[in-house]
Specification:
The structure is a homodimer. With about 375 residues, the first copy, chain A, is an alpha/beta fold. The longest helix of chain A is centred in the C-terminal third of the chain and has 27 residues.
């Protein structure tokens, strides 16, 4: 059977092979500590679960409008007013099946075959593949600790060419947990606008920051797209629900795409999401944020103390991006060996790009402090054998 | 803002404008009879709702594997054995967010830019747009009542060219409710194989047939892809859950695509789907099938008796495709006038293709017989005024 050429350019998640091996080890009785999973370990907030169950019990399991329930759109618009002071027409809210759905719809909306999109390396791997799937060209830009592993207006200008259509960036970033300052974000928005391109900011880890609260790009631009999700901060990964805030002019096109691609986002998840935006759920989520901070405050110095180099501190999400070049030449092999010898699972840099990928690994602090302590002690023992 | 060229080729659903107007009329107190909606009016089976609620209460709201829970894959494979006598390796089961997800993944997997896909006109509108989105060429083939508005081996051979990559067909068909006979399906599978193309059969309305039970293409081919869904027969539209049965060689590629495009299908929907395949739910679904048959048995002769020409009887799904050229020159205008004057909403042919689209409308018998009777009497009155 003949497959499309694009398939050769789409890489699998390397961590899946590790996960498969981790499961096998677990089935053999090994106690695996999972620091590879980009998913909160908490259950969904109790109010959210209750709302989802009520929706189901009430028979609310039919299709909704393609871009989401009007009530959910209103609640999301309210949320922007409360959290960021941004007044938003609910018409601009496009509810999607996870941010995955939103990211694909935006690439389909904006990028012609042969046009390129600037992406950070390291960065979220699916973004490269979405651009490739629609015939676009991925222009991976090496970002470094000097810029918090984020774009700056300068790097964007330096990498822009006649075929550049858009910049897609994430703050906080996966895999580095770093954020873009307001000053840098404003400069980036202005630069992309002056280059007549489109700025897409993935804000799915907003709410999960530990030293500051972040601005949304919507505070500084009416032309940018903001992508968000109920998965991470709101603890609703398996519900598959997210959203895009689009410039008004882009809404009809996105509506057409959502009608075709999704028919509608999952209905019960939308009712859960409405509850997630209520004050009671937000209180529960704030407690979890504090717990993530506690973990970060433990894990980052602990890793440093056993020899990991962390060139940019984790300011958000639940990720630490660490340089292992002092221990090994290839971080993928390092991850495999670490899992085999200690039962600690982490993600190799190669899942997030190619530039310097062999030097780095990603730690997800999505497990409790005692488990993190256990992991650090196992890792310390492992390193001593290298 | 500049949008990608593909956006000009993607048509909105024309019925959405009608739906918008229908909602407005309802808000003004008009009793609208909805015969435009491609969605069962029944709630999800009680066992399914119960299983979904239990999953939620148990905290099963995290990500699952990208192509679905192993238990669900096993259950789907069992279902093929029970219903069709087909022995299936569960490895070949790819669980997707609705059949929408599966259809997109298959086009991404198979079709290069510039290659074409044979589609029936009339047919499901999103399929045209999925091909377009990935740079493929839609080759719409006029199908007629002589062939039950379905492909035949002859029409496929006549329309095949050097750039044809695949045939995508649906049995039962949306919008015609017609099915492909076993004999025709075998001939089609053999023809596509001999042309070294790929056959994709959308079987999402399987289970909803009224005069016969259908074979799956998997009984006749190991190289074809079968697409299915829990939306229609299983009554789970808003849950957004479907599946693809793929040839073994295609599974690794589909896994890569699903990891990127969806991360995973909605978790609670997967637990609901497991319950939908249990004998108790299947009993409930069989009762509904009988009810759909009752509606078809009423509506089709009733429409004929008031002057509609139905060139191919509805054998499955819940659709009747009717020729209105005796009443009006443009079926879209006919639908608008019908809605305005009588409150009966139906779907214009233009949503399903361009060839002869102005002659046809689609009726969905997704409402009770008394409501259908009311609709027929209103339509009869309307026709008398033309």
């Amino acid at each position: 059977m003949k497959f499309a050429d694009r398939m050769e350019k789409i890489e699998p998640f390397y961590v899946m092979a590790l996960l498969g091996r981790a499961k096998q080890l677990e089935s053999e009785g090994v106690d695996v500590i999972h620091l590879e999973v980009g998913e909160p370990d908490f259950p969904s907030p109790s109010r959210v679960v209750k709302a989802g169950m009520e929706a189901m019990a009430s028979g609310l399991t039919h299709y909704t409008p393609a871009t989401g329930l009007p009530l959910l759109k209103n609640k999301i618009a309210d949320f922007y007013l409360q959290r960021y002071g941004v007044q938003l027409d609910p018409y601009r809210v496009i509810v999607t099946p996870g941010s995955s759905g939103g990211l694909q719809a935006l690439i389909a909306l904006l990028v012609n075959p042969g046009e390129n999109v600037l992406l950070t390396d390291p960065g979220y791997p699916c973004n490269r593949n979405f651009v490739t799937m629609y015939g676009g060209i991925v222009k991976s830009v090496a970002v470094s600790a000097k810029d918090q592993f984020q774009f700056s207006a300068d790097t964007i200008r330096a990498n822009w060419d006649n075929n550049t259509r858009a910049v897609l960036m994430a703050s906080p970033s996966n895999p580095t947990g770093t954020v873009v300052s307001d000053e840098a974000l404003i400069a980036i928005a202005n630069t992309v606008a002056s280059l007549e391109g489109t700025l897409i900011v993935d804000e799915i880890y907003h709410g999960l920051t530990y030293d500051q609260s972040l601005s949304t790009v919507l505070q500084y631009s009416d032309e940018a797209f903001a992508i968000n999700s109920f998965s991470k901060y709101f603890g609703m990964t398996g519900w598959r629900i997210g959203w895009v805030i689009a410039p008004e002019v882009a809404v009809p096109g996105l509506e057409k795409l959502c009608q075709n691609m999704f028919l509608a986002p999952p209905t019960v998840a939308q009712y859960g999401a409405i509850a997630a935006l209520e004050p009671e759920a937000l209180v529960e989520l704030e407690e979890r944020r504090v717990e993530f901070k506690r973990r970060r405050d433990y894990l980052e110095p602990a890793l440093r103390s056993i020899g990991f180099i962390i060139p940019a501190s984790s300011e958000g999400a639940f990720y630490i991006y660490a340089d292992i070049s002092a221990f090994a030449a290839d971080s993928y092999q390092f991850c495999i060996d670490l899992l085999e010898k200690t039962g600690v699972a982490i993600t190799p840099g190669i899942d997030f790009g190619t530039i310097n990928a062999k030097r780095y690994v990603r730690f997800a602090y999505t497990t409790s402090v005692p488990r993190l302590q256990d992991a650090v002690s196992r890792i310390e023992g492992f390193i001593a054998t290298l």
